[in-house]
Specification:
The complex is a heterodimer of chains A (437) and B (166). Chain A is α/β, with parallel strands linked by helices and 437 residues long. Chain A is built from 17 helices and nine strands. The chains are: A alpha/beta (437), B alpha+beta (166).
């Protein structure tokens, strides 16, 4: 469901408070809503004070990895005489994930403010926002907000009259999922193919243009102004379950629910509240079959596994999956799991950068095997072959795209094996046209 | 809006476009970082990026044409072949596919007269492509037509949408 819509009683709007208000997109409108107070405060703080405050808040990376934001910032070198860069990862492309899009569409100044504070926290004067090429509307809105922020002196050589320089540059991607991987993104920004880089060196040592660099997700940076303005203790207090998962999180809910959309809840809120309360549950007569809780790259959970599941990093990990990006893909009892897993494998095969053998060959080989199963041409040992391939695709490549392709295959076969068997033993009719058809 | 042209190649980086490119240089420490922006500028001007376009970008940025081609082919949004006047990209990745995106794709193919994905309609008006995850999974089916991002497209709304694109 698109904005505007009133928040559900089970939501805790922080980042989404002004989603749906067109006036919040303007500089004046944002200032009237308390905007840029965090940046003004941060301009009077040292980098250490800023990253210690963010550390104390418990904020963790919202792009998928969940690494401590303040800790990441603290890795940046001190007084090394080199330019430092902040990169905002706005290359939102993980299937099931569409939360950053709403931040950029409705509260572009929240992101710009977060980027500016991030620069101050890592001793950078320049932030690049790398936005995926398909996000044409967020791009226009962000560009307009950026021009206004400069015109009003919030950014530039003398941000809010502080004497400190903060520049933000928007860089448009051109279509490649892999550029959401931080080192691939840096290569794209440098005018190269988006191939991930071998680590080390880590970005904090040698990142963008070989300089110390920090990369943060849109949602992570958009949360920072709230933390600086209202204090780490307030943010850390937003917690319903694990104390290691604090604050609010935007969850983008899609698939077979009555009201798909982006919703904001306090960390630790039960998954059932999100799916059945806020997102309206299943369509009449349908029942829940499976949920991919954190974007397509994380293990699939069955309906039974989401019972009593708190939406936080530790809770979902304990249940064998990951919170990831918060992209919640909901599947009801009409879903053909084999078909959906094939379609996901096809996605990864299309998006492989092709530099690692296991990924280049594995993503397309698994896709072909799943395809022949769906054509009714599967071979008796195909599931063993898929699992063997998946094993070879996991933990053996430069980045985790290959692992991400293997993940739904492994969890799918483990949890929905009978559906694969039905195609293999021909009790289920093929859904893809066979070679002879 | 992307508009291909049948006219002979005219250099893109002259006059104000060249000035725009050079103004961007102040934002990056290397010349090479202008590669993605420069390719976008060629595509905006001509609707696609031809061999001459790649060569001009290479010359302007002091890179080789082979290098520029290697980068341009990595990214799906650069069109290295002439396209229809309107390029339609339909998301069919799993979350949208579960909600009927394949039927939306088929409706676009049928109503545009495009015989297959990637092949321009005989009247030159449309090219239909599949896109991998447009990042609007809750608004299935999202469709990008030129620079217009449409949400919640269904097979029934396709004919009406097409009337807006000449």
């Amino acid at each position: 469901m698109g904005y505007p819509h009133p928040p559900h009683a089970l939501e805790t709007p922080v980042l989404s408070t002004h989603f749906g208000e067109a006036a919040a997109r303007t500089f004046d409108g944002w200032v009237k809503r308390g905007g840029y107070e965090g940046l003004k405060k941060a301009l009077g703080m040292t980098p250490e004070q800023i990253f210690e405050e963010v550390k104390a808040s418990g904020l963790r990376g919202r792009g998928g990895a969940g690494f401590g934001t303040g800790l990441k910032w603290s890795f940046m070198p001190k007084e090394d005489g080199k330019p430092h860069y902040l990169v905002c990862n706005a290359d939102e492309s993980e299937p099931g994930t569409f939360k950053d899009r709403e931040i950029m569409r409705w509260t572009p100044h929240a992101l710009l403010e977060g980027c500016a504070i991030g620069c101050l926290g890592i001793r950078a004067e320049t932030c690049y926002i790398f936005i995926r090429g398909e996000y044409t509307e967020p791009l226009r809105i962000l560009q307009a907000a950026l021009a206004e922020a400069y015109a009003n002196g919030a950014l530039g050589a003398n941000a809010f009259g502080s004497g400190r320089r903060v520049d933000i540059i928007i860089h448009r991607g051109a279509g490649a999922y892999i550029c959401g991987e931080e080192t691939a993104l840096m290569n794209a920004l440098e005018g190269r193919r988006g191939n991930p880089r071998i680590k080390p060196p880590f970005p904090a040592q040698a990142g963008l243009f070989a300089m110390p660099t920090t990369i943060n997700n849109v949602e992570t940076l958009a949360a920072v102004p709230h933390i600086i303005a209202r204090g780490a203790a307030w943010y850390a207090g937003l917690c319903k379950s694990s104390p290691k998962s604090t604050g609010t999180k935007l969850f983008s809910v899609c698939g077979h629910v009555m009201k798909p959309g982006v919703y904001e809840v306090t960390m630790g809120t039960p998954m059932r509240d999100l799916i059945f309360g806020i997102a309206g549950g299943m369509k009449p007569g349908r029942t829940l079959k499976a949920v991919i809780p954190g974007g397509s790259s994380v293990p699939i959970l069955t309906a039974g596994e989401i019972e009593d599941l708190p939406l936080d990093y530790e809770g979902i990990q304990a249940r064998g999956s990951l919170l990831g990006s918060g992209g919640v893909i909901v599947m009801d009892d009409t879903t053909d799991m084999v078909y959906q897993i094939w379609r996901l494998a096809r996605f990864y095969a299309h998006e492989s950068c092709a530099q690692c053998t296991q990924c280049r060959e594995g993503t397309s080989w698994t896709t072909r095997i799943l395809e022949r199963i769906l054509k009714g041409e599967g071979r008796p040992d195909d599931l063993d072959l898929l699992l063997d391939l998946a094993d070879n695709m996991t933990g053996k490549t430069i980045c985790v795209l290959s692992d991400s392709c293997a993940t739904p295959i492994v969890s799918g076969i483990k949890k929905f094996r009978s559906e694969f068997d039905a195609y293999l033993n021909k009790t289920r009719a093929p859904v893809l046209a066979g070679a002879g058809a | 809006m992307s508009r291909p042209t049948d006219a002979p190649y005219e250099p893109v980086f002259t006059g104000s476009t060249r000035e725009k490119l050079e103004a961007l240089q102040a934002q990056y420490p290397t010349r090479q970082a202008l590669l993605l922006p420069a390719l976008w500028m060629v595509q905006e001007a001509r609707g696609w990026v031809s061999d001459e376009g790649l060569a001009e970008v290479a010359a302007v940025l002091d890179l080789t044409p082979a290098y520029v081609r290697g980068v341009a082919t990595f990214y799906t949004m650069y069109h290295l072949h002439p396209m229809g006047r309107n390029v339609i990209q339909v998301c069919t990745t799993s979350p949208c596919g579960m909600c009927g995106a394949e039927q939306v794709r088929d409706a676009f193919l049928r109503h545009t007269g495009c015989v297959e994905l990637g092949r321009t309609s005989a009247d030159g008006r449309f090219t239909v492509l599949e896109s991998e995850c447009l990042g609007a999974c809750g608004m299935a089916t999202p469709v990008l037509i030129n620079d217009d991002f449409l949400e919640s497209v269904s097979p029934e709304t396709v004919p009406g949408i097409l009337t807006r694109y000449a």
